[in-house]
Give the backbone structure.
Amino acid sequence: MPVITVFSGVFCKEDHVVRNLLAKSGYKLVTDKDIVAEASRLSGISEGKVNRAFSSKTSVFNKFTHEKERTIAHLRLALAGMLSGQNLLFVGFTTQFIPKEISHVLRICLIADMKFKILVAKEEKGLSEREAAKIIQRHDEDCAVWTNTLFHNNDPWDASLNDIVIPMNKMTTEEATALIEDNMEKDVLKPTRVSKKAVEDFLLVSKAQVALAGEGHSVGVSADDGSLILTINKHVLMLGRFQDELTSIVEKVPGVKRVETKVGTGYHQANIYRKHDFKVPPKVLLVDDEREFVQTLSERLMIRDMGSTVAYDGESALDLIKEDEPEVMIVDLKMPGIDGIEVLRRVKETRPEIEVIILTAHGSEADKNKCIQLGAFAYLQKPLDIDVLSDTIKQANEKIRQNKAAKT
């Protein structure tokens, strides 16, 4: 029997179709939740953070942390490890990982027009038209970003990504189920020696991608019976040394027999590939209303390989930490509106694990004592010595690292 996958728009009767298929086929259901749990186990990343990989919103720190790429690599590995099972029905975003070379997979996509989806949202969830439209728009954006990330294709419902696209506004759930069942019986979907080998190759590729992502690398990987081909699609300095480094990483992966590296079509572009360094402080939030100063400071930190982003007032900074996870904040003491002391107070009340460094040109000894009492990691004077700040950030990052290690 083939593997079945279902990728669906929201409010497209996915649950009804899946329940029908499970009842009639005896298949085992595997959802994104199952894949996320396994990816979390494999990576040590919390399930909440793993789930963020499916969101269209990417952390402002991701260009420094490479976290989304590492998470996706572990999600792919989790799915690949399950794919050799029998009679499986996969549902969700992770179904898009499965390569076309695995021919015993029936890829189903459920779609519907806006009118139908809003009607289903009203009937099944009791939502208003406005509430439903907002959820639909957000889900469609997540789906579009997801398929663009994997395939550079902004249309998640593109027929080329699926075997069957079913318009649920034109079919009943029973008719959709029957259509899927009819196609399940086709000989072309029966597992073969070649398709089973493709599953093994996919698992090996996934293991190699996790190993590479763990070292800060992102390159194309393909496999054939234990032989890996690594494709470099960005220009690199000292290509030979880079190829040796990639080879040394993946040849340690169990099952790899041979490694070949080559340059791809994107290699000759002007941008230069840089390995992600996970040892440097990657999540520094700078908060200062002096725009020129804080932008220059951010650039100087990035020269020192410290990933930083900027907020120009206290309110924006507090909004940002609700969605992202800065590890170190550098906050100006005197700002219009919510000042540095109030930012420090609120951060330590809600996110005490964040280390806060206060900067000031006009602070008093009383201000310094108050900041230290509230939990500031350091209190530094302007004009700022960048080396002193850099060392202070590293010390704060080391404290964070030790606190995390103590909790594990």
